[in-house]
């Protein structure tokens, strides 16, 4: 999931204030943002924005996060598998995977064996994934497994799960506005 920042809107909302002034206001809100970093953000040179920073900018300008940040699905699942997903997002994916496992009626041990995890306690590996630890590839295998169990009514790939997680985050952000 990539982001697109509406740089024009941010520059327009900043008005005659300098980027350093905006960074100072964000620092007063408890964030560690420099004028240089905010300038990169405003020019669209930043690929990741923390939820805290997005909320602070929205609050500062009287906007909703969706007004200036758009989430864009990645074109290739390989890009997601090879990238680093922030830990807080992995935890949310893990929670979704746990919900799906519970809904399927399968135990963690059964799931582990279905995706090829072996050993003395394979269920421990599933519990780790459900807590947001573990590889993206294994999370993807789990989401594909649950997709085959539930059919089209549920996430079938890691990308689908990411879409659901980001939609949940957008919902949370809307509630906070």
Automatic annotation (TrEMBL):
GO terms for molecular function: DNA binding. Residues 33-68, 97-153 form the HTH cro/C1-type domain. InterPro entries: Cro/C1-type_HTH, Lambda_DNA-bd_dom_sf. Transmembrane segments: none annotated. This is Transcriptional regulator. It comes from Virgibacillus salarius.
């Amino acid at each position: 999931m990539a982001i697109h920042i509406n740089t024009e809107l941010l520059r327009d909302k900043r008005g005659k204030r300098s980027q350093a002034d905006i960074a100072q206001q964000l620092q007063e809100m408890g964030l560690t943002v420099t004028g240089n970093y905010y300038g990169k953000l405003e020019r669209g040179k930043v690929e990741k924005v923390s939820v805290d920073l997005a909320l602070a900018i929205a609050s500062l300008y009287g906007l909703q996060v969706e007004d200036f940040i758009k989430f864009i699905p990645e074109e290739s699942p390989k890009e997601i598998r090879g990238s680093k997903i922030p830990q807080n997002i992995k935890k949310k994916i893990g929670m979704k995977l746990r919900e799906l496992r519970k809904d399927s009626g399968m135990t963690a041990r059964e799931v582990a064996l279905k995706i090829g995890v072996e050993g003395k306690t394979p269920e421990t590996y599933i519990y780790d994934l459900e807590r947001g630890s573990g590889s993206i590839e294994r999370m993807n295998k789990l989401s594909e497994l649950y997709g085959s169990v539930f059919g089209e009514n549920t996430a079938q790939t890691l990308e689908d799960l990411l879409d659901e997680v980001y939609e949940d985050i957008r919902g949370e952000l809307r509630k906070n506005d």
